[in-house]
Amino acid sequence: VRDCIQKTLTEWSSKIGQDQHQETLEVLECTVAQAIEKINPEERDELKVSAKLFIVGSNSSSIRGAVDLACSALGVAQLDSVIIAPPPVEDGTNLPLEYLQPYWKELENLVQNKKIVAIGTSDLDKTLLEQLYLWAQVKPSSNQVNLASCCVMPPDLTAFAKECDIQLLTHNDPKELLCEASFQEVLQESIQDVKANEWIPLWLLRYSVIVKSRGIIKSKGYIIQAKRNAS
To answer: What InterPro entries does the record tag this protein with (predicted)?
Structure first.
């Protein structure tokens, strides 16, 4: 992720003048157009477009923006699935349902507005997954489990997922995919005269486009949003 951000920022920065830097520091849209492959509408039915949204800052309203940006970048009206990964918590600390609820409500709204087909979760234990399932209007269709922390699926989680028709998936993402310090460091290295310590990442979305019939990845990439807290 760090390498992707650095390469994009460096290439983008080299293409604009220093004067433009100063004018656009409040809002920077850093894209490398040739690096994003839009989906041909004629091929849309043959492809599955999925995303995993990593929340860095605590702002549930950013979910709609992330989905809209992903749809715009890929040239689609709808994502087939979105999995939300809440911010990491300290070991031994349990994430409360109240924390997840505003994020899930945003996802539910996007399902109802036909921007997303299915929504899922990441790293929820049986207790929290059950609480979310009972509370939610749109039920989670999947839950990702990190096999780095458990080599075998917990039996209680497996039984509950089977009972409620929730697909259990595995992943090997680190607990914190991109921390604030790492983002600021790569920003400082990539763009001259930027006040990196003023920029805070809000979310990171990883998308993948899969050919359904063959199960191969056609394209994948990252979209990130950061906010400038100028003093």
So the answer is: Gclm, NAD(P)_OxRdtase_dom_sf, NADP_OxRdtase_dom
